[in-house]
Design goal:
Elements: E1 3-9, H1 17-27, E2 32-38, H2 44-53, E3 56-61, E4 75-76, H3 78-83, E5 88-91, E6 97-100, H4 103-114, E7 124-128, H5 132-143, E8 148-153, H6 156-166, E9 172-176, E10 189-192, E11 216-219, H7 228-236, E12 239-241, H8 244-259, H9 267-279
Parallel strand pairs: 1-2, 1-3, 4-6, 7-8, 7-10, 8-9, 10-11, 11-12
Antiparallel strand pairs: 3-5, 5-6
């Protein structure tokens, strides 16, 4: 019996997740499908229930549903519970939804593998955004013992809410969006978790001139792969990390949860994904 999975979000046409999971389904000769499903926020509950009724065994979750989907799940794993955001859902044979968060490990594992000499403990970070991805990144950095983290969002109230949920020892500082350029001094890591700079979205207006040349700049946006933020940082000589690796690494445990196989990120898959990025 074909096992159906997919990605829900709004929009989802830009996503490379179908390319990744379809490659693995073919590589491991699994009878399954993975499709991108655009769901507007007002339709989330109704459309998710329709996926259950249609026999789906699970789905990934992207913007803007990562927080709201948690309220539709029957239970959450420890990481999703702590973060307050879900990016992977499994559906059992009784139609119950189980929420997981693989973004945390996907983000931090990719950072460590991309910049192996970047020792995380005691560092300072600036995180842009206050959505589901920002929650995962903030949780990961706190868990890795960053000394302090500055959280900056276009809506201050959302940033305060995220800090209140995740920060229990006063390591998260809130800075208003208008003051973002001045918050980069003494920063070791800058992470953009917003959709700003993504193809089809508004640009990220961010001057990184105040960054140390030793700082790492990480943008979770992967379309385009070299965002204006990363281009600006690279020109200054900063080490940069693209969002493609996080996408690949968070996908692995999701695939395993649905199909019982932990897939590999091999050269063939990276080549396929890069061809899609270049051709888009």
């Amino acid at each position: 019996m074909t096992r159906k999975t997919g990605l829900i979000g709004h929009p989802v046409s830009h996503s490379l997740s179908p390319v990744i999971h379809t490659h693995w389904l073919q590589q491991y000769r699994i009878d399954g499908t993975y499709t991108a499903i655009d769901i507007a926020p007002d339709d989330l509950s109704t459309r998710v229930r329709a996926l259950v009724d249609d026999g789906y065994v699970g789905f990934n979750v992207t913007l803007p549903h990562k927080e709201e989907i948690a309220f539709l799940c029957d239970d959450l794993d420890d990481t999703a519970q702590a973060v307050g955001a879900v990016n992977t859902v499994t559906i059992d044979n009784r139609g119950r939804l189980h929420g997981h968060n693989t973004d945390v490990d996907g983000f931090i594992n990719h950072l460590k593998s991309s910049v192996p000499d970047f020792h995380l403990s005691g560092k300072h970070a600036v995180v842009l955004g206050a959505g589901g991805a920002a929650r995962a990144v903030l949780y990961a950095l706190l868990r890795e013992d960053f000394e302090w983290i500055t959280l900056i969002n276009r809506t201050r109230e959302r940033a305060v809410a995220v800090a209140n949920d995740l920060d229990d020892d006063g390591r998260v500082l809130i800075v208003d969006w208008e003051k973002r350029g001045g918050a980069l001094a003494d920063t070791d890591l800058l992470v953009n978790t917003t959709s700003l700079g993504m193809t089809g979205q508004a640009p990220l207006d961010m001057d990184v001139g105040g960054l140390s040349p030793n700082a790492v700049v990480y943008d979770i946006v992967y379309r385009p792969l070299m965002t204006p933020l990363l281009q600006q940082a690279k020109m200054r000589g900063n080490t940069i990390v693209t969002g493609l690796g996080m996408l690949l690494h968070q996908a692995r445990p999701a695939f395993d949860a649905w199909y019982g196989v932990m897939p590999h990120v091999d050269d063939e898959l990276e080549s396929i994904v890069m061809e899609r990025l270049v051709g888009s």
